[in-house]
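Can anyone check this?
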Amino acid sequence: MSKHRAWFECINGCPTRYNLTEVIYRCPTCGDLLDVHHDLEALRDRSGAAWIKLFEDRYRRNDFPYGSGVWGKKEWVLPFIDNENIVSTYEGATNLMWAERYGKLIGVEDLWVKQCGNSHTGSFKDLGMTVLVSVVKQMIAEGRPVTAIACASTGDTSAALANYGAAAGIPAVVLLPKDKVSPAQLVQPLANGALVLSLDTDFDGCMKIVQEITNEPTIYLANSMNSLRIEGQKTVSIELVQQFDWEVPDWVVIPGGNLGNVSALSKGFLIMRDLGVIQKLPRIAVAQAANANPLYLAYRKNFESFEAVQAKTTLASAIQIGNPVSYKRAVKALKEFDGVVEQATETELADEAARADRTGMFNCPHTGVALAALRKLVDRKVIRSDQRVVVISTAHGLKFANQKIAYHMKQLEGVESHHANAPVDVAADLGQVKDAIQRFADKAKVLERSVG
């Protein structure tokens, strides 16, 4: 049995600790969220250098489950869980792309994109779901009467839950806002056999109902207010530092909706610092869609107050959230990491995704939000050209193929599509084909000079 320990504890510091296999999501004393805490003294049984060696020896190997980007850091994630109860698709270990050409366009010399969407279900949500579903499998093995796992979702969470539930043989229930999820995202939980409930409301409405049904202890809550998810997602920070040979970037830019990912990023960096693996922290920039921007509005008031908003429709549907559950966690992280918050309009996020696509990416709209925010921060010289910047790409662009086609056909309502690239109809004639190629080549030269 591992000598390393972890437990739930209130984010406000209420003194009681709770077992990670206990069905509990909020502090019984104050009603706020819980976080996972680790026994750092026990983890100091290894030096920072020794942890680095252990993680390097495991990385992308075939010794189950340690080849997973998450479970290779098991002692820092869930040290107590039995390996036979781990449900893993070897998530994580996603590529860190040097965005050289796009960086030159916006004026950042050392720009990287962490492609978290290059995963089993196509989003970073796999990182948290492997942890949560594994805990439920352990609970069931220990005799707990859990019969299903449920979540509210705007797409990616439902896909991850359905997939890992199917891999574990545990029924999954997902609540989706009707007509607000892309077809590619909708088909994922359907294909994996989940019960898909389409509700005539938005994400916040789905979230309210899922919290009510999970008051029944036989149905386990899988949303990010359950901080088990955060433990998996924090490995993004650890992995990207590992991919830089354990050097810390100057900035990390991440899209924010329910804001669990911001807390996760900070937790990964903090545990590395506290255990002597790194000596400094990066700055964090959170990017929000202007149509769903409660964190941005609070940031503009120095976080003196928070007001939920009625989120408007945004192309970045996964972050179309007006009342984020992890707001307090996010504010704490931003203050500790000297963070900033920026927003992007619908045209800005769509244009920036398209502009970056032309340099070799294939961006989801949420990454478009992050890229648009990055460009603004660079233009204002908040982020300097000589700093190392990592953008977290949260999902694969193929999940939004219909949206991207509509952009290039100039069919997105309210979006001007400044970088549209529609198909060109030509006759099956050699001369016309050659003429079209020449026009394309001439246009490409102009674009190369002007797109930045």
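Reply from J.R.: I decoded it. The mean pLDDT is 94.
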